[in-house]
């Protein structure tokens, strides 16, 4: 059974990594194919921005619904159904000719992605418990790998006609908005390219088929390991909530809001910054963008091994300090080309491990259930939506100020300040712990008092026994002396003297013997009488 349980846990991890690979591809494929989607519904690329709003709202709704459903139904079934819904949406998008229907399909895909993101993290925690660190890092590395592969897959499907300026940044909604703005600035007429209508749909079909296969595998896991859900629920029930459980979850919500917002903002706007402020060529700007996401993906891969011997809190601390140092250099010294390249690489690497390490870290101090996980996933999703939008608005108002770099610096400072507060709350002693400590101290005090009482009683008993022994010895000596002074009984002895003899014999431990008709108390009565005669 132990071998079967270990094999099942590894199968669950493999399925989750495959699912997150598909999640990354599903999100990232939209950017390179966005002009083709606009042409497919006969709209300008600037007129269908609301499909991203629909997908984001669906993602938020899916995170909430997934958090509730995960606590009341089997995780494998829930993830399988969510991925099947993603497959349906991906299959329907290439043939969608109406913008409203396209928005609905995007909302369905966003909802299923929210369920997968919430449920996948919680399932990994319930499957591995305190050993989840490397597996959580592998999970989110798979997401980054999928976001890296999807644009390449789309470029192959489009026959190499797409621009190279979007390597991996399309992993987020706002990165796609950047490409929308670029495309709309280039052209305000529908980009109707009939040969692309058939080319780009293959990328959606390939990704949708892959996700369908992963969905089937989750159904197989459900049929093979139905007890895994019960075991995970039992392990969760055995855990204890932190004293400030909901305060921790709320702070983690804010922490992920700023962290994910900063990650998405830099990945979305570093290309524009490189062209406008650093005056780079388009190829150099694209290379700088690739350096950020390449360092991000590479560090997540290395974190799989690092999490095996480093605590999650240590990894978060190192990442936050590196992020603060690199963002400071980017905010105040980015006009130096070398610092811009090095700072971008370090900043991307420092952002890689924070999200998975944060989930592993919070699991050490409190129970992470579906509802709790949905809250910090929602925080990450809101940060992904709000902060890039705010930066885009401010950058449009203040053209000569590098808002993206100052945003990176401010968000890094906020996360550096938030983590010690969360650590302090997480380590606050629970009421049960204080009660157990007081009970243990009371038990120790009672045991020590009982030992002292027993020792005193033993000493007193010993003194009493010694006094009793001395009394017995003194009484025996007196009896023996009185017996030595007593003369042998004669016929003229008084009855009182004769009656006293047996009592003396009993006191000295000697039994009277009757022999040859002699008097009681005299063993050789006949001989004595002869001598007396």
UniProtKB/TrEMBL annotation:
Record carries keyword Signal: no
Location in or out of the cell: Membrane
Keywords: Membrane, Transmembrane, Transmembrane helix
Compositionally biased tracts (Acidic residues): 454-466
UniProt-listed InterPro entries: MFS_trans_sf
Chief localisation class: membrane
Ranges for region Disordered: 446-466, 481-533
Any one GO CC term of the record: membrane
Annotated membrane topology: Multi-pass membrane protein
Transmembrane segments: 7-28, 48-70, 77-94, 100-126, 138-158, 201-223, 244-271, 316-334, 340-362, 374-394, 400-423
Coiled-coil segments: none
Family classification: Belongs to the major facilitator superfamily.
PANTHER family from the UniProt entry: SODIUM-DEPENDENT GLUCOSE TRANSPORTER 1
Name of the protein in question: MFS4B protein
Source organism per UniProt: Atrichornis clamosus
